[in-house]
Amino acid sequence: MIRLFNGVIYDPAQKIDGELGEIWIKDDKIVEKPSAKKIKKLKAAGELEEIDLENKILMAGGVDIHSHIAGPKVNSGRVLRPEDHRRDNIARKGKLRSGVGSTVPSSYVTGYRYSMMGYTTVMEAAGPPMKAKHIHEEFNDLPFIDKGFLVLSGNNYFVLKFISENNMEALKNYLGWLIDVTGAYALKVVNPAGVEAWKEGKRMRGIKDKGTSFNLSPSEIMLALTEANDALNLPHAVHLHTNDLGTAGNYKTTLDTLELLKDRRLHITHIQFSSYGKNENDRIKFRTATDKVAAAVNKHPKLTVDIGQLVFGEATTMTADGVLEYNLHKLSGHKWVNTDVEMETGSGIVPMNYKKKNLVNGIQWATGMELFLKIEDPFKVFLTTDHPNAGPFTAYPWIIKLLMDKDYREEYISGMHKNIDNYTDISNLKREYSLYEIAAVSRSGPAKSLGLKNKGHLAPGADADIAVYKSLENKDIADVFAHPALVFKDGILVVEDGELKSDKLLPGRTLMIKPEYDKNIQAEIRGDFQKFYSMSIDNYAVTDNYFNKVEVVPCRSKA
Question: DSSP 3-state assignment of 46?
């Protein structure tokens, strides 16, 4: 057993806000404090390790609800950006392999860097079902962190077919089958109907228009998918990338979406990209519209969001929203990749360089910050950069400093474009996040939203995924969160003083769910599958040999 004592605990899931306490670990779980008699026996047998944390900050391991870390899109990004391989290389050391890359690092480096910040669970945000085998192969090369993937479903042929036929039972069973055979964790919906329309050479705006061969609107697709998601009792809500993402004035589409789904469980991802106002008579069309969006988020009873905070510097945008990537390519003139994944989705990749003095980039940065500061409940808003779209996840410590230190934030704003205050509210916001709120947006909140009952907290029964940070007293906040004093994964010490233990190489688990559904759905879709797909339905499923270490997370109670 391990006893961590004299730690200052921040655990919002248990409403613990900076209390001095201790944590007991047995094997890979946090456990109740043993009896005095048991402790005496453990000590006598030399089976108790005690670590004095000396008033350091004690939190659960970080949980990233949305990041692009594995799969064909990420791999294409690595191929597209050989220049990215020259930055931040990691050499081989002990059992640790070498790796390269900054915005699109190789698999091993991704696992290393998350661990070295105190993160222990990460969700791959968008996986084409047909490419699930690639994702799981890469998961096996992502050490230290637990991971799962969200399967793309908003522009899938069978999804659109069953919705157009108003066959909700078949839709539910198909989605259950899709999650099961791909080893996925949740449903991801990207620009519903918009991607399918783009593949047909059409453009759609808002959520009411109809423009695909199935004659469906985004509204109809979102209503059907959120209903099916709840019918399957999936632990996480539908994970939605909104329509019109990245365009000036798109806050109206976001508000329409929230109104449409006001009574449904929902997670809106990288909401910063969906919260822009529009200046009709100005050369700069963009402005923030965060007052309206934050107000809508605050009053929605079943909604969570993550920010997708923009980070200045190099980024690699990659998304299943192919039309968005085409627009970025035309706007920036940068190289790009665009792919149609048969019957399921599309995708695109465009490198970007966000510049601090660029006014539009500054407005985007301010939009994310404003949402963080205007959304009231830290259990509803989560820390992400939509890695690597708005910047690399390694910027999290810097974002935490911006949230916690208004003086630093004001100094930072002073170095931006001189007209930034004409288009944003950021200079007027004085709120500072507490350590309790940081623990909520980076640990307790995302774990709760994902339905991961063993993650994001330090109560007995939780996974022994723990991050210990130095006290903030007289220290730089970003440096503290970039270099944890100790990180435990499954009760094993993997990071000490910000450095990986070179004698450790833990595989981490693949998280998935196994919903209940009618298995006869495979026979129902076989004809169209065999007619339109380039592979046989019998070769579609991810088989057990693709998995290393698996944890099946239970679905929600039917009650």
Answer: coil
Does the residue 459 lie in any domain?
yes
What is d(CA 248, CA 125) in angstroms, rounded to the nearest whole number? 24
Looking at the structure of the chain, the number of domains it has is 1
DSSP 8-class letter at 364: H
The answer to whether position 158 is within a domain reads no
**Phi and psi (nearest 5°) for 206?**
70, -165
Q: Provide the token pair at 321.
A: 């929203």
Cα-atom radius of gyration of the chain, to the nearest Å? 23
370 lies in some domain: no
Between CA 352 and CA 332 the distance in angstroms is: 8
Distance CA 547, CA 537 (A): 20
Under DSSP, is residue 58 helix (H, G, I), strand (E, B) or coil?
Answer: strand
User: Comparing C-alpha atoms, which of 144, 162, 140, 142 is closest to residue 153?
Assistant: 162
Contacts of 509 (CB under 8 A, 6+ apart): 146, 147, 549, 550, 551
Dist CA 445 CA 293 (whole Å): 19
Burial of 179 (0-12, 13-18, 19+ CB in 10 A): buried
Helix (H/G/I), strand (E/B), else coil: 145: coil
Phi, psi angles (nearest 5°) of residue 190: -120, 120
Q: Residue 38 is part of a domain; what is its CATH number?
A: 2.30.40.10
What are the helix (H) ranges across 380-510?
396-404, 406-414, 435-439, 445-450, 477-482
Among candidates 393, 399, 481, 389, which has minimal Cα distance to 113? Answer: 393
With left for phi above 0 and alpha for psi between -120 and 50, is residue 248 left, alpha or beta? beta
The parent domain of residue 43 ranges over: 2-60+455-484
| Predicted confidence (pLDDT) per residue in 446-503, tens digit | 999 999 999 999 999 999 999 999 999 999 999 999 999 999 999 999 999 999 997 8
What pTM does this model have? 0.97
Chain-centroid distance of CA 76 in Å reads 20
pLDDT in tens, 498-546: 999 978 788 899 999 999 999 999 999 999 999 999 999 999 999 998 9
CA distances from residue 10 to 167, 229, 456, 457 in whole angstroms, order as listed: 47, 32, 11, 9
User: Percentage helix, strand, coil, to 5, in the chain?
Assistant: 35, 25, 40
The SS3 call for residue 191 is coil
The token pair at 357 is: 């003095």
Q: Which helix (H) or strand (E) holds 156?
A: none
Q: Which residues contact 291 (CB under 8 A, 6 or more apart)?
A: 374, 425
The answer as to whether 38 is a domain residue is yes
| Total number of residues shown for the chain | 559
